[in-house]
Input
Amino acid sequence: MKVNVHGKDLTVSKIDEERIGEKLSFLNKYLLIDDDTTAMVIVKRHGNDIKLEITIPTKVGTLRSEVIDHEIRSAIDDSIDKLEDQLRRQKTRLSRRHREKLAKAFIDDGAAKTADTEPAKVKRVAVDALEVDEAILRMEMLGHSFFVYRDATTDIISVVYKREDGGYGVIEAV
Output
């Protein structure tokens, strides 16, 4: 990312320009910012204070921060915090907006891949005839999230599993 620093009614020192460039370099880790992006930074007097304006056009929208402070260094830090917050919010909006499309793409892509590939691991287990309570106890003792067993009363192969709400569920193969 390129950084253009301009001073209006004051001159910006080379140290402050380098500090601004260094602080803005954290934005390179975000996908919304690429090497061709140019950040416009304007530093000007605002009464007895300093006003720092940063504008960054991105692929999705424009990031902008305006901070008024007594010192340029604290203004830089405050504006970076504002930009980071904006980036986080934009990233969250994008992920929420495209979550269903991404999930469908992964499901479609996964279905295509599973037809050509073999399972990563095959494990064979001896299925014991147990009551549900015994199966839950064995699952807990093993530290697993599910346990396969043969129901002692119905003689059906079943799976007991931990639910997200803290309870247990049973799946019966018929």
